[in-house]
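Structure first, sequence second, as always.
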């Protein structure tokens, strides 16, 4: 019986929770906008960003060639910082009125298919969630 060792090429699967957890420490420090994170001067920020971009690459690889999955991934990726707890009103406004609106427009432009209604629903749900956070944080 031989022992099997993982190859050096094997990659650890990065989860959404891994990314959220690495960013939570910045939320705990009072940072409310991910754009305020400076990776040039802070190795912890650099580490968080590296994990984040590896995670995005992983999501892109899984969705490659599947138009619906790519659209849903865009919404999912857009909400990732919000899921981590970043809730600065200016940032939320940018997410809602730039990125999610663009995602919604892209979902409307592309051909209809049975999955498209679900993609549109998820995009609308994300927009409503950000609107609620924005209303809560601008009172």
């Amino acid at each position: 019986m031989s022992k099997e060792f993982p190859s050096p090429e094997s990659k650890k699967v990065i989860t959404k929770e891994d990314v959220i957890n690495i960013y939570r420490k910045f939320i705990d420090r009072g940072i409310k906008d991910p754009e305020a994170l400076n990776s040039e001067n802070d190795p912890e920020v650099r580490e968080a960003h590296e994990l984040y971009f590896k995670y995005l690459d992983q999501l892109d690889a899984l969705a490659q060639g599947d138009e619906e999955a790519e659209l849903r991934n865009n919404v999912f990726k857009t909400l990732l910082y919000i899921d981590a707890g970043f809730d600065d009103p200016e940032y939320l406004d940018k997410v809602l009125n730039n990125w999610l609106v663009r995602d919604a427009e892209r979902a409307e432009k592309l051909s209809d298919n049975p999955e498209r209604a679900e993609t549109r629903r998820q995009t609308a749900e994300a927009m409503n969630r950000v609107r609620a956070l924005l209303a809560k944080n601008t009172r």
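Margin note: The longest helix spans residues 114-137.
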